[in-house]
Amino acid sequence: MHSNTIRLISLLALFGVVMLTTTRFYEFDEPVWRLLTGRGHLDPLMLHLRGEFMESDLGTSEAADRSVTVRLVAEQFNFVPRCVVVPQGVAVKFRVTSADVVHMLSFSGTDYRLKAVPGAIN
User: Fold this and answer.
1) What digits encode the pLDDT tens for the residues 24-71?
2) Residue 70 belongs to a domain
3) I need a labelling partner for 65 at 20 to 30 A (CA). Which of 4, 26, 88, 93 fits?
4) Longest C-alpha distance within the chain, in Å?
């Protein structure tokens, strides 16, 4: 082989290794895995009509142990509902999905981020 071909193959392999090691599992691999296996798959067109992401079920709900579950649907430049209030000092679990494209939900002052993927629940 020519030295340029070997260099190109080496650079592509290095790029692949860097991408695999820097991509977080929960941001990319897990949503894609859920989408491919059908586990947690939702029809983005029917989100607001049935299931846990019906408009009447969005927002916060409190469990018997006082923990709070927040259900959000990401849409273009918006999250539904737009504002949620949770009590201080209790465990909060987010269930997020998307109605159109991939969105990122980040929390100011923290490193926490959630990716909302159409058809998947994160």
Assistant:
1) 555 556 666 666 665 556 666 677 777 787 787 888 888 888 889 999
2) yes
3) 26
4) 68
